Amino acid sequence: MADDGMLLNFELGDAPLTSQVKFKGGRWRDRVKAQKSAKEEASGISTQPSKARYDPDRPGKRPRGNDDGGYMGRHNKMPRTGGGGGGGASEIPWVPTHAMKTGLVSSSLFTSNPEFKTKFDDENDKTNDDEPAEPAKPSNAPLSEEAENFHKLGISKRVAQHLATKLEMKAPTAIQKNTIPTLINEDSDAFLQAETGSGKTLAYLLPIVHRIMALSLNEDGTPKKDVKVDRKSGLFAIILAPTRELCKQIAAVLEKVLRCVPWLVCTTVIGGESKHSEKARLRKGVHILIATPGRLTDHLDHTKVLDVGTVRWLVLDEGDRMMEMGFEDDIRMIVGKIRADKLQEKNEEGLVLKGVLPARRVTVLCSATMKMNVQKLGEISLEDAVHITASKSEMEKDAEGSTEMAFTAPAQLKQTAVIVPAKLRLVTLIGLLKSTFARKGSVMKAIVFISCADSVDFHYEVLKDPAPVESPPPPADGAPPKKVDIHIETTVAPASYITSPANTRVMLHKLHGSLAQPVRTATLKSFAECKDPAVLITTDIASRGLDVPAVDLVIEYDPAFAVPDHVHRIGRTARAGRAGKAVLFLLPGSEEGYTSVLAGTITPERYEEVLKKGLASAVNLPANTPNPNSENERQTWMTRAENLQLHFEQRLLAKPGDNEEDDSNPNPFKGPKGKGKGSKFAQKPVPDDPLLVSARQAFRSHIRAYATHVKEERTFFDMTQLHLGHMAKAFGLREAPGGIGGGTSRRTHRPALSAKKNAAASGPAKPSTKKQDHDDDLGVVDEDAARRMKAKMMMMSMNSASEFNLG
Nearest CA to 269 among 306, 313, 234? Predict the structure, then answer.
């Protein structure tokens, strides 16, 4: 074909041809910034735009929620580059610069974190490691056997020998030494105050048992003639405790003591149990009754066989806790009914009670703290009471008129405060637990305190091994297999992530007030009797009075709602002279000042030190879960922490029935490729993983619980300083879900509403649907919504909710 003679003359210049890049996925704002950065690089305006964006030292406004720069959906793909043709366009998902090297979304755990206010003295730490200080002398240990024993305090020889031989209690503690003679020889009311783990329970139980025994035994232990004490002799003592678990523990201790006097009977009446069976036990007869205030009030109103005319002792254990839980009216009613009945000097069988039992009703109030509500409870129940403490000097000060006593933790308890940024809380907890069980026999039991029941459920599900529990093999001797308690099927399971070659099996337990009473009882029993290393994840329901053997470590993952609650939490370890360790997690910033109001010496520690110890070796990830570890990459504690965080994020984003190798349909809300939602080939939306739903609910409950700290301590726990996006990462979430303050603000244009519709819209928000929750994870909650939510949370925090204390 002949040339038509036309000549095209284009000026291309000397610059090389570059392909135009389009960014897909993530948020619109992030794509615009990425596109702008790409243009600046191409034009040479900025030499290092990507580094400037991710420079952690760059001053500026606080990052928004997700530091990885965008939400990548369920499938993380390698970036695709453009073709070789000049001027061609390519489409790549937007990813941060440091994530393009591996093809994975980096968790960015170690950037954009707030600075510490605490000054760490590394030199002193090294000196302490090289020259360990002499351990402190236990302050709640039993006294010397040569100096004191229970028989010298006035306890009968029969009971003293039983304590020494069967219970291995040869010497009393300081509070027992000061309390037992007073309650045996005098009939006055008493207020017992001593540190946790010092033996307050036996301090009031032993005098009661001794004086009831005196009805049928002489001083030398021989039976009295013509005197018979049986179940029908009457009710002599009532012991009130705030929680069901504490009631059962008191009953367990009392039953061990009563084995030397089997004719004396004790029982419990607590919520969650059958009233019919409780009435049957009361009808048979009981000498000592342990009860919760609410259930005892019910029996006093409706159980006619419950006669309190012979009651000589009323014990209020953990009185401050009962007042905090709202039992003031119940206690007033109980005290009033007991005092209203005339004190009987003989029972129905003619047994003479005068001269042996107290001539008046004696009330004993036990509390570790002297708060205003305790003083109010004392005004309700006590009359001319004697203040008894572990130290004689403190009792002398009280006699002079000073009622203030500085309550301290046990001297042998080692307390540490780990300053952890919000994003690193979960991986730091795992690192701490992993290092705790790294050596066999070093730590047998640990308790992790969390603020609310939803968070307990989430962390239990995350840390437990998802593989089904294998049934135990049958015994080799042909005996019938041991029955498995069905009550602990959902509360006890083998743990993952925190195991080690030394301890390949660590049992995980969960406990909170929303569980049924049989489940709570069975779980606590399993934790106490577990022969393997065990971890209990619980709310404050386990913080009062519980005495679980061999608890070596207490972790306050969420700080207590008040200082007295902190004292009782750490009191679960270092009991009766044993050594113990307590670790408190605090966020950088205002929370660091919280240690100034706590009892005892608390050593601050960097989270890096915990991660270096815990992640010095690889973490054993559960089978059939995402494994982001790279074999070609040199594993350090930092890379292990990032990979572990990424593992949790991918685990939560996995849909039920996902196939990791099949990425042909990355959008769960569309059918096959090319088929829209309205097509007949469109698939139904796949429901979110239950673990993801649990994480969202745990996050919401955690933020609400954070607002319930007591007014005096809100300077340390300031809602306005809480970074919701960073805190979401502690629950494995890449975005902070909405619905915390009662509703979700959406960045969408809505038509104007009439006045009536506006009024209706301002009412209670409806629960969010699954589609809304999915949109929340895509980042539809803007900064204005976050500010409005925080303001609403501050208003809600003015009314503290006790539900978080109970779970």
Answer: 306
Please write the tens of the pLDDT for every residue from 773-806: 333 333 333 444 455 555 555 554 444 443 343 3
Whether the CB-CB separation of 508 and 493 falls below 8 Å is answered with yes
174-399, what's its fold? Rossmann fold (3.40.50)
Q: Which of 188, 220, 320, 330 is nearest to 271 (CA)?
A: 330
Asked whether 92 and 81 are in contact (CB, 8 A), the reply is: yes
CA-CA-CA-CA dihedral for 58, 61, 65, 68, to nearest 10: -30
Report how far residue 724's alpha carbon sits from residue 68's, in angstroms, rounded to the nearest whole number: 15
Cross-strand bridge partners of residue 602: 415
Calculate the alpha carbon distances from 114 to 105, 429, 605, 619 in Å. 22, 19, 16, 27
Strands 288-291 and 386-389 turn out to be unpaired
Q: What's the Cα-to-Cα distance from 300 to each of 244, 248, 341, 439, rounded to whole Å?
A: 18, 20, 12, 53
Decide which of 3.30.720.210, 3.30.460.80, 3.20.20.20, 3.40.50.300 is the CATH code for 409-469+485-614.
3.40.50.300
For residue range 239-261, what is the model confidence (pLDDT) as tens digits? 999 989 899 989 999 999 999 99
| Average pLDDT value for residue range 226-233 | 86
Structure tokens at 500: 């080690």
Which tokens is 390 given?
Answer: 């572990």
Query: What DSSP letter does each residue of 122-164 carry, written as one string?
Result: HHHHHHHHHSPPPPPPPSSS---TTT--TTTTT--HHHHHHHH
With bands split at pLDDT 50, 70 and 90, how would you rate the model's confidence at 749? very low
Question: Strand, helix or coil at 494?
Answer: strand
Q: To the nearest 10°, the Cα dihedral for 543, 544, 550, 556?
A: 20
Per-residue CA distances from 681 to 662, 668, 672, 678 (Å): 19, 13, 7, 8
On whether the CB atoms of residues 636 and 642 are closer than 8 A, the answer is: no
Quick one: tokens of 612? 């270096």
Q: Tokens 């769960």 — which residue?
A: 668
User: Within the chain, which residue ranges are assigned CATH 3.40.50.300?
Assistant: 174-399, 409-469+485-614
Q: Which residues pair with 538 in a beta bridge?
A: 449, 511
Phi, psi (5° rounding) for residue 9? -120, 100
